[in-house]
Specification:
The chain is of the alpha+beta class. It has twelve helices and 16 strands.
Length: 378
Amino acid sequence: MNFIAQALNLSKSAAKRLEERNILRKALVKHPFFADIEEAFRFEKKFGQFEEGTVVVKAKDTLKVFRGFPKVRRALLLHPTIKKHFGSREVVLEEKMNGYNVRIVKIGENLYAITRRGLICPYTTEKARILIDDEFFRDYPDYMLCCEAVGKASPYVPTDVYGIKTLEFFLFDVRDGKTNKPVTIDEKKEIAEKYNLKLAEILATVSSDDIEKMRDVLEKLNRKRREGVVFKDREMELSPLKYTTSYANQSDLRYAFRFFGEYGRDFMLSRVVREAFQSVEFGEKEEEFNERCLKLGKAILEPMIESIKACKRGEMVYEESELVFENQEVIELFKMHLKLLGVDFTIEVLDDGRVRLKRFMRSTSDRIRGILQGSPWK
């Protein structure tokens, strides 16, 4: 724990408490693909000023700290929440893309991709090394490119909404690794242009009381089956707020109820609550309200019924995605990574570096089988 104490400027006893309280966990599987790293630990939960997902790395000739991505609070109502939070400042509406959050960093000679939980993912790292030019890190060696990893070939959130068949990175923040201080919106745009990085789209800049424009943007996103919006202060001095579309809420519910044994009630209830507040704020007429109810009911019942029927056929409930690797060695490392996560999975190797990943949802499968065999609901 000595290098942890040194990197975080903590006493040795404080660093020891991190270990005793099981806050520190391994951030990666040791492997030549991660050759620049001697040791790396992640924060399983928040500790003092350090966010969940913070990673501390001991490299060959240096110590590195990459702070966890701050939690973004959610607005359930546009009015009065946005005005209350941003005051008289202009508000930038940035698309909240449907993928998984990664911080791309440079350690030693190579790029590494850190997931929100602080795991250094071999699959995402391989993609980052192919798609991201490390020129940015020659000018900003201790910074993080905070991106949404989006596309159909995703091990965590596969989606075909954007027409991306593989995996791409969309920049939404640039932050100092050790302090978590972000650059301004304008600086981020300049960085993206200079280093040829794709940006999460900035949809509009409005006054904090222009609710009509905000709602118009959200309704267009909803029709396009998009996730939602992140509201930001141009100077990034105030913390952002997020707001999701009805499509995103129902999509989350569809996923959660398909694997209801793996997801808690709070996850499910919060999405229904969002739908209720949005329905009231948007002043829906009876026809619109009935349509929302129909979609919401189908999002809850349809996937659960699919899971029950699968178990009746003697199958396990699983999530499937198709990934594309450049290197056979990384496939084997990714298997070790999933085992570190405790995932129950199979990987079928196809062709041209493609694999089919199945993540089995054992809790859901066991719960359904028990009920089908006569067990009561707990």
